Amino acid sequence: MGSTETRFRVAIIGGGIGGLFAALAIHHNCKDLPLDIDVYEQASEFKEIGAGVGLAVNSARMVHNIGLGEELNAIAGNRSGIWIDFRRFDNGESIIAVPTDDSKKVRQAPCARSDLLDLFRRAIGERKAARLHTRKRFSRVEDEGDCVTIWFADGTSATADLVIGCDGIHSHVRNQFVDDKPIYSGQIAYRATIPIAEIEDWWPLKTYSIMWCGQKKHFLTFPISCNRTLNVVAFADASGKDADDVAESWVSTCESREVEKDYEKFEPTVQKLIALMPEQPGKWRINDREPLDTWSYMGGKVMLLGDAAHAMLPHAGAGAGQAVEDGWVLGRVLSEYLSKSRPSSRLPNLGACAALYQSVRLPRAQKVQATSRNSGPLYDMKSPELVGKDFETCVPIVADKLRDRMKFIWEAELDEAYEHARDQKVDGSC
Fold first, then answer.
1. Is the distance from CB of 103 to CB of 226 less than 8 angstroms?
2. In this structure, is the dihedral angle defined by the CA atoms of residues 218, 409, 366 and 395, taken in order, positive or negative?
3. Which residues of 351-379 are buried (b: 16+ CB within 10 A; e: fewer)?
4. Which end of the chain has fewer CB atoms at under 10 Å, N or C?
5. What share of the chain is helix, strand, coil (3-state, %, to 5)?
């Protein structure tokens, strides 16, 4: 960065996993092109709140693509060949174990959010991929014709050619253009982490990646931090009134007796885990947003990415992975655009860039969003086809529906999809 030539200016709003990966993916795909990237984070530091996050094989591949695969595997947990072993809540018998191949170089990567964010932040510094700014709360963006001006809550401003809104489910960038609010799912989640050293001597199962399924609730564990830590997330139905005092982050806590009461009928392994949870575990309100049909504004000079574009429930374990896919595709799109002197380019303006990005990502992200919404009720034996059936009748139906449910998330060929869409002469109107 720093050349006297005219440089394309990218402003990324939000310094979470999606925003930092977008910076890395754009830098990687455009590293020989005249480009400057600035990332603006509203907090005082780049820090993730929460514990575990999963990258499926498809999104892990994007991290390998930018040359961080070995580092990713080094911070990830190992599922011992099983994505999730779904088990009965009452006696712990297996409903179905969904396999995954952990022997491959590119594999499932369940991580601590803080570890993954630190990996991306360090890589940005080492590669000089972007300038990182803190205490910059987005206020508004104004269209200046050939560029935009971004205003921050502290009264300062910045100019950019492209703004990428990566500021989460409560996105201020989205809120400037779309009048909608997060939607409560009807569930809360209790969250905690437990050192695996405290359970490994008595753990009775092949994998630490387990979901105990009951009616109207389920209890999920998976390993993170190179199998040093067990991530625990327990989902239960709660009325909107009961969830009114619950924030959408780990800022909210509760007394451990709430967890004990909600899962008192779950089998002994779950009871042992609850006993090891802190006295005040996290309590999280589970929200998403309705699907958006448009992710770009101001003629393509403003685009949305990650939860800002497609906030989803956590039941497919795919929210972070979908943000990673967004960032990779946007990096490829901008590479094509900034290399538009090449005869093969079909991206004459940012409107065409936005149309291509959206044509690749929006249908897939919305399918994952819908799958995430539908999966929770399935785990909890209350999806439409299970209503009115007793638990014993539900179990084999659930097993059949879970067998191949996530394959489309894991196995999509993202570069192939991008190249197919690029070659279709995307309409540049926006």
1. no
2. negative
3. bbbbbbbbbbbbebbbebbebbbbbbbbb
4. N
5. 35, 25, 40
- Complete edge-to-edge strand list for the sheet that includes strand 296-297: 131-133, 35-40, 8-13, 162-165, 302-304, 296-297
pTM as predicted: 0.93
Q: Any residues with CB less than 8 A from the CB of 234 and at least 6 apart, and which?
A: 189, 190, 191, 217, 218, 219, 220, 259, 262, 263
Rg of the Cα trace of the chain? Answer: 22
Q: Tokens 């603006």 belong to which residue? A: 40
Q: Quick: pLDDT tens for 13-52.
A: 999 999 999 999 999 999 889 999 999 999 888 876 667 9
C-alpha neighbours within 13 Å on the C-beta side of residue 240? 5
In what helix (H) or strand (E) does residue 109 lie, and over which residues does it extend? strand 109-112
Residue that the structure tokens 């509203």 belong to: 42
